[in-house]
Amino acid sequence: MGQGVHTKMIQVVSRELRMPLSSIHLRGTSTETIPNTNASGGSVVADLNGLAVKDACQTLLKRLKPIISKNPKGTWKDWAQAAFNESISLSATGYFRGYESNIN
Predict the structure, then answer these.
(1) Which whole number is the average pLDDT over 9-35?
(2) Domain Aldehyde oxidase/xanthine dehydrogenase second molybdopterin binding: where (predicted)?
(3) Each residue of 24-67: pLDDT tens digit?
(4) Which long-range contacts (CB under 8 A, 24 or more apart) does 72-80 make?
């Protein structure tokens, strides 16, 4: 039985970036994309990954702030196109490690 982590991460992105759930696509992680993920034991994976996703969203919002301020009523598609035109990266990773680990 899964913990619904993918659904929870999509919900975090939707809330942080204020975009519809249907516009968010999630790809599973691997060491090719995130080499130092936290262990998923003890039901903390949603907390750790959720805070990492939130961190990545905050990075994106900081990069997009000048774009959004120029066109505050724009859509995400408008902002993404403007960011592309201005060579602003729309790729971000987040990391959170706020819990003590018992792994030695």
Answers:
(1) 85
(2) 1-97
(3) 988 776 676 666 666 666 667 777 888 889 999 999 999 999 99
(4) 76/17, 76/19, 76/23
Whose tokens are 């301020």? That residue is 69
Please state, in angstroms and rounded to a whole number, the distance separating the CA atoms of residues 74 and 67: 9
Between the CA atoms of 103, 53, 23 and 79, what dihedral angle is there, to the nearest 10 degrees? Answer: -150
The CB-based long-range contact list for 22-29 (8 Å cut-off, 24+ gap) reads 23/76
Rounded-to-integer distance, Cα 58 and Cα 53, Å: 9
Q: How many CB atoms lie within 10 A of CB 90?
A: 11
CA angle 19, 24, 6 (to 5 degrees): 120
- Above pLDDT 70, what percent of the chain? 76
Q: Give the SS3 label for residue 58.
A: helix
Q: What local confidence, expressed as pLDDT, does residue 95 receive? A: 76
